[in-house]
Amino acid sequence: xxxxxxxxxxxxxxxxxxxxxxxxxxxxxxxxxxxxxxxxxxxxxxxxxxxxxxxxxxxxxxxxxxxxxxxxxxxxxxxxxxxxxxxxxxxxxxxxxxxxxxxxxxxxxxxxxxxxxxxxxxxxxxxxxxxxxxxxxxxxxxxxxxxxxxxxxxxxxxxxxxxxxxxxx
Length: 169
Description:
By secondary structure, the protein is of the alpha+beta class. The protein is 37% helix and 23% strand. The mean pLDDT is 86. The longest helix is centred in the middle third of the chain and has 15 residues, at 52-66. The protein has a single domain, classed as Alpha-Beta Plaits. The radius of gyration is 22 Å and the shape is elongated. Strands 3-5-4 form a three-stranded antiparallel β-sheet. It has a two-stranded antiparallel ribbon with strand order 1-2. The chain is built from six helices and five strands, in the order βββαααααββα. One of its GO terms (molecular function) is metal ion binding. This is Carboxypeptidase PM20D1.
């Protein structure tokens, strides 16, 4: 794909140098998500639970709590660890050399490490949010928007997850 680097300490249990070759590039996608309401109005006179900003933040919370993308060892990721297993110290060599058996033990641990978690599933983050104006903060925004950034492991996984996201109201 696009090469790699000679690293030290990147793979757990490997004391020496490792050649990290990028054989699997995660794709990046950005989506603009918009919530709107038919009219804008004074913040003190309109119910805030139906405001564009309230609706958008409810959408963001629902996406984040739904865990749309499940973690798994993609073949490329699994092979990376299997190839390194002979060079790992115990118990890493046993765990990563036998992911078919120990994957259910290793995966929850990896999910607690941000860099490792990114290897196991598509990640979603909301990077921006806009709504209303500074000029007149009493008036509820007619429209609010956020940018949803996805970094995906596999395209088919991305598409299936997007369908779930679209179904969130």
